[in-house]
Design brief:
Blueprint lengths: L2 H15 L4 H8 L3 H8 L8 H10 L4 H5 L10
Length: about 80
């Protein structure tokens, strides 16, 4: 699994756990819905760390919590 795929999978998992939608991330975090949509639908091939931080902060998740998930042990490239 690529790092990008692991990040997206983990991000979607947290969004489901927190019941966070594009709308709530936009309204509560000021993150453009178009940007979120592009990231979640793999229209962007990269996600910037500051964007990831903003998304996670809006949901009350730290970078440490995010990256300590076992899914990152499956990253091969």
């Amino acid at each position: 699994m690529t790092l990008y795929d692991a990040v997206l999978q983990r991000l979607k998992q947290i969004m489901a756990e927190k019941n966070a939608s594009l709308y709530t991330l936009n309204k509560e975090g000021g993150i453009p819905k178009s940007t979120l949509s592009q990231v979640l639908n793999k229209k962007q091939k990269k996600i910037k760390l500051d964007l990831l931080y903003d998304i996670l902060s809006t949901m009350g998740v730290t970078l440490q919590e995010f990256f300590t998930d076992p899914i990152f042990e499956e990253v091969t490239d």
